[in-house]
UniProtKB/TrEMBL annotation:
Alphabetical list of InterPro entries matching this protein: RNA_pol_I_trans_ini_fac_RRN3
Organism classification: Eukaryota, Metazoa, Chordata, Craniata, Vertebrata
Superkingdom of source: Eukaryota
Region (Disordered): 572-595
Pfam families per the UniProt record, alphabetical: RRN3 (PF05327)
Family affiliation: Belongs to the RRN3 family.
Gene Ontology terms, MF aspect: RNA polymerase I core binding; RNA polymerase I general transcription initiation factor activity
GO biological process, one term: transcription initiation at RNA polymerase I promoter
Chain coiled-coil ranges: none
Protein name: RRN3 homolog, RNA polymerase I transcription factor
PANTHER family assigned: RNA POLYMERASE I-SPECIFIC TRANSCRIPTION INITIATION FACTOR RRN3-RELATED, TRANSCRIPTION INITIATION FACTOR IA RRN3
Gene expressing this chain: RRN3
Length: 595
């Protein structure tokens, strides 16, 4: 007897014990004005210790009276939707899925609530961490149920879509509303972005909007990764590459750069998604690739092109173009149309020129034939532009910004690709370069060397003099001698000194600094190769030593001085969601479960 008494006193009752009547009786009492059982029912549904058997029992009863669960019972339905179904037995999951399907069929008014519940599980659960008086709670990175939970969420979305064909239209605003703050942990952001991109697999109609959402959030990270070292402007924080580089590389052993770490993780997610969406069993799927290319170009036009000082996100399109030369040529043709279109704002035309020059210079996968084809478009356009000017024209960035940007794109391309043009057949290559008549452009009254970055102008001058193509130093020395103190900026406003980058030059494919995702970019990226002594004869090389991990080009930060964020600055998946210590591990494909 003692043993029985002892067991009774120390053993809690099974949670299948319930209080109040059935759900049907409770709803009837509620209609008659008696809410006591109704409130008790909501309380029992919210019990954190609720057992599987009781969840199944409640869901079965709720399913039997769905026609009564009108908008008046919103609180009760929401309590049922919040039942802890993930991480539970297969029987609970099956019953919960059936409840969702029946609910959206019988009461479409709850569609948004069901979608919100599912999307809220796109990130790991939170754990509470208190340090003193500071709450630093964030995601639970060790949840072993994450792979299964995410699978079930996507199954639920697809099941709901079968019952309600308009699901996609209601889902997109919820995906936007639930996007975690970019200050959340890398893990949280990675899970959410991965799940967003996974939605595009079965809701392809949402892909462009989802890519736009993801890119806009990544741009916020990209342009704000200066750790406070950037200049604050009316457009927001400017990305300071020098400060970023110093902290992310030189101090990496002492501290992490949290913004760069998040951006690196998300770039790895996006690049692996692009790879897997375009390939099947290692074979490029051309039609799927073209569709993704078209979506990414639309996002590029809307978000990337107008954003000055972004350093990494644009590499998503760079990577996609590496899959096939035709994609790279299509991208260049798109940029060319933007550059020469007088209906486009000058600042966007200049940005397009910057993308052309940087892409031709840095993309290893662009053959010399394509480089020459682009020069055959750009250079004659420059000559026609000069022809259109009257004798009174002079150097003015505001009036001729796209012209100067195109000049700099040509000079920059030749600095990087002149060897490729000349190798194999020096005589033929020189004849081609001579046919461009670059001297006429350099010597024109518009004086492009005065506006281009000095480092670009000087390197171009050194290389072209070596091959006796153009003698630029006369013009450069005259410009230095005259020291015209002011040139109007292409962005308008007050004048600025001539050494302050009046073109607001921006090379979007400058060296890629993120380490994890950079492993994908490295094989397709053309680093700066120091020219031989005879090529730079007369060119003043910088005295300071440059580490191999620092920017590999000859600009030495010149584009940083006048950086502004112009136009629109929007407000894994390498991944088995690795910790920073596992950066050296091999990448996994997007469709593999990283969690």
């Amino acid at each position: 007897t003692r043993t029985l008494d002892h067991d009774f006193l120390n053993t809690p009752p099974m949670k299948t014990v319930r209080f109040g009547g059935s759900v049907t009786d409770t709803l009837m009492k509620f209609r008659q004005g008696d809410t006591s059982d109704y409130e008790l029912l909501k309380h029992q549904l919210a019990d954190p210790d609720i057992k599987d058997a009781q969840i199944i029992n409640w869901l079965q009863e709720l399913r039997s009276c769905l026609s009564q669960l009108t908008k008046d019972h919103e609180q009760l339905v929401h309590a049922a939707l919040r039942l802890p179904w993930l991480g539970r037995s297969a029987a609970v999951v099956e019953e919960y899925m059936a409840f969702l399907g029946n609910l959206v069929s019988a009461q479409t008014v709850y569609l948004r609530s069901c979608l919100k519940m599912i999307v809220s599980n796109f990130t790991p659960g939170r754990i509470v961490i208190q340090e003193g008086n500071v709450n630093i709670s964030d995601s639970d990175d060790n949840d072993e149920h994450l792979p299964r939970n995410f699978d079930l969420c996507h199954q639920a979305l697809q099941m709901i879509a079968r019952y309600v064909p308009s699901t996609a239209r209601f889902l997109m605003p919820i995906l936007c509303e639930n996007f975690p703050f970019v200050t959340k942990s890398s893990r949280t952001l990675e899970c959410y972005v991965h799940n967003l991109l996974r939605v595009t697999v079965y809701f392809p109609v949402l892909r462009r909007e989802i890519l736009e959402l993801v890119v806009s959030k990544m741009l916020k990270l990209d342009v704000s990764a200066g750790m406070g070292g950037g200049t604050e402007t009316k457009y927001g924080a400017v990305f300071n590459r020098t400060v970023f580089f110093f902290f992310f590389f030189n101090l990496r052993s002492v501290m992490e750069h949290p913004v760069a770490e998040r951006l690196d993780v998300l770039m790895a997610v996006l690049l692996a998604y692009i790879k897997d969406m375009c390939h099947s069993n290692g074979v490029l799927q051309l039609e799927r690739t073209k569709e993704l290319y078209r979506d990414l170009v639309c996002v590029f036009d809307k978000l990337l092109l107008p954003t000055h000082a972004c350093c990494h996100v644009q590499y998503a399109l760079f990577y996609l173009c590496s899959f096939r030369v035709g994609l790279a040529e299509a991208f260049l043709e798109h940029l060319w149309k933007l550059l020469q279109s007088p209906s486009q704002p000058a600042i966007l035309r200049q940005a397009a020129a910057g993308y052309i020059g940087s892409f031709l210079a840095r993309a290893k996968f662009v053959p010399v034939m394509t480089v020459k084809a682009c020069l055959d478009l750009l250079v004659p356009w420059l000559h026609r532009y000069i022809d259109s000017q009257d004798s009174g024209s002079f150097c003015d960035v505001t009036l001729h910004g796209p012209f100067y940007a195109a000049c700099q794109a040509v000079f920059y391309t030749l600095v990087f690709r002149h060897r490729a043009i000349l190798e194999g057949n020096m005589r033929k290559g020189l004849a081609y370069l001579q046919s461009l008549n670059l001297e006429r452009i350099v010597m024109s009254q518009l004086n492009p060397l005065k506006v281009c970055l000095p480092s670009v102008a000087n390197m171009f001058a050194s290389i072209t003099r070596n091959y006796q193509l153009v003698f630029c130093y006369t013009v450069i020395e005259r410009n230095n001698r005259l020291q015209l103190p002011m040139v109007r900026s292409s962005q308008g406003g007050s004048c600025q000194p001539t050494d302050m980058n009046p073109l607001d030059s921006f090379f979007p494919f400058d060296p890629y600094l993120l380490r994890r995702s950079g492993k994908v970019i490295e094989p397709i990226y053309q680093v700066w190769e120091e020219p031989s002594d005879h090529e730079v004869k007369g060119h003043q090389k910088p005295a300071r030593q440059v580490s191999t991990e620092e920017e590999d080009d000859f600009l030495h930060g010149e584009t940083l001085q006048a950086d502004d964020v112009v136009g629109m600055t929007p407000g894994s998946y390498e991944s088995h969601l690795r910790s920073p210590s596992s950066v050296g591990s091999p990448p996994v494909t997007f469709l593999q479960r990283p969690f």
